Every structure is written in structure tokens, then in C-alpha cells.
């Protein structure tokens, strides 16, 4: 605050973005904060509200890690309680991962203007752990399509090095929702066209922190293009082959 540096300060090579906070732990370690009382609370809702307010005063939005349904609810409550402050500064807060949501909390992302920064690859790779530790609750787990349908801003990342640093693998995971031949849950799959938009267009809308127009092919917007290689790229996470240029193989796998 003393230096007067705000979010988005920097250049295309290095730019300041978000303040990072953690609400809870992880699924695999059973430290995700749950509505049933289990898990570990790292940051309370009251503490997060203070971080959001202090960040907004300094011109920084907050990106908060939340895995369990209680962690996500507490984070949403904190953003709701401080919405007048951060929205007035034109900041775009994010919840990182948003892996398990109670049904009543899912539409709040769109209602509040909080972006869901997720990783499509987590859904198939965490499938067995979720079935084991979140038995009976998985309808609200990795609800990417439901978040999109609700109107939420959804951004897909790799979470590397936890997952593979391969953009197409993430798109594949969102579209196919399986990596080992088991039947996917089609109702939760993201359609291929929307999966690409989540990776590129919507991702561009949140990485810059501010609401500057970017990420859409429009004469009014800033844009940067690179020529995709036409050679096939093995999507190791899903075991199918996609072409960077067209993605036809991914679409065929979905339609099969």
C-alpha cells in the first residue's frame, strides 16, 4: 500500500495478480473442511473477510483455495459480506478448486460474480478418492457443467505439477470425464466447444485480475495468436489422441 502498487502491475512477462489464501486442506489427506464437521480449517470466514477488505483497499483481489463444501460456503459468505467493497474497486475474486459444493451454494458463484478457478483433470484423477471419502455427496463434486449452466465464470487450469502441464489433457478430462475406460457421468461432462472457451476465453478474464477486456476474438479486445502445430498430441491423461488444430478426435471420442 505504501508503494502504491496494485494488482495487474507489471508487464506481459511478469505481473502481480492475486492475494492467495487457504480455507482448508485437501481431499486425499481428508483435511478438506466439510459441513459434517470433518476436515481442517486453515482460514476462518472472519479472517478471510479481513483479508478481502485489506486486499481491496490495496487494489488486490483475493484467490482462495477451497476444497470441501464448508470451505466453499465460508469463502462465498466472506465474498458476499464484502461484495460492496471489492466490486466497487472492479476486482474479480476467485475460489480455487471449488471441488465440493452444497446444492444451495452452486448458484452463488454467478450471483456474486465470484469466478470458479477449477481443474478439469481433477474430476477423473480424484474419482476413486471422492467416491471413498465423499460417499453420497459426489453429486456436488467437480460440478463444472452445472457451474457453467448457472452462468458462473469458470476458468480451467492444470494445477501443475500436481497434474500434467498439458492444456489439451485438461480439455479432454472435462469433455470425457474418465481416464481409464470406466463409464463417464455424461450429465457432468462439459461440451467440447465450451471446454475450449473455459480454457482460453474465460481463463483470460480472470488471470489479469481486473475486468479489462481480453480473451475474445473481437476487434475491441486485446488478443494474441499463435500458430498451433498440426501434429497429433497424445493426451496421456485420457488415452485418446487429439489434434491441436481441430480437436476432431476429442469430439469423435465424445460422440462415440
Question: Please, could you describe this protein's structure?
Answer:
This protein has 10 helices and 9 strands. With 256 residues, the protein is α/β, with parallel strands linked by helices. The protein has one domain: Alpha-Beta Barrel (TIM Barrel). A 5-stranded parallel β-sheet has the order 3-4-5-6-7. A two-stranded antiparallel sheet has the order 1-2. Strands 8-9 form a two-stranded antiparallel sheet. A hairpin with a 4-residue loop joins strand 8 (232-235) and strand 9 (240-243).
* Helix/strand/pairing category: alpha/beta
Our estimate of the beta-strand percent is: 5-15%
- Count of individual helical segments: 10
Q: Unreliable stretches, pLDDT < 50, 5 or more residues?
A: 211-217, 225-256
Question: Helix and strand succession?
Answer: EEEHEHHEHEHHHEHHEEH
Please tell me the total number of domains. Answer: 1
CATH superfamily membership: Metal-dependent hydrolases
CATH class: Alpha Beta
Radius of gyration from the alpha-carbon trace, in angstroms: 18 Å
Work out the helicity level.
25-40%
Question: Mean pLDDT, as a whole number?
Answer: 79
Distance between the termini: 55 Å
Q: How are the SSEs placed, and which strands pair?
A:
Layout lengths: L9 E2 L2 E2 L3 E4 L22 H13 L4 E5 L2 H13 L1 H6 L5 E4 L10 H5 L2 E4 L3 H4 L1 H7 L10 H7 L3 E3 L10 H10 L15 H16 L24 E4 L4 E4 L4 H8 L1
Parallel strand pairs: 3-4, 4-5, 5-6, 6-7
Antiparallel strand pairs: 1-2, 8-9
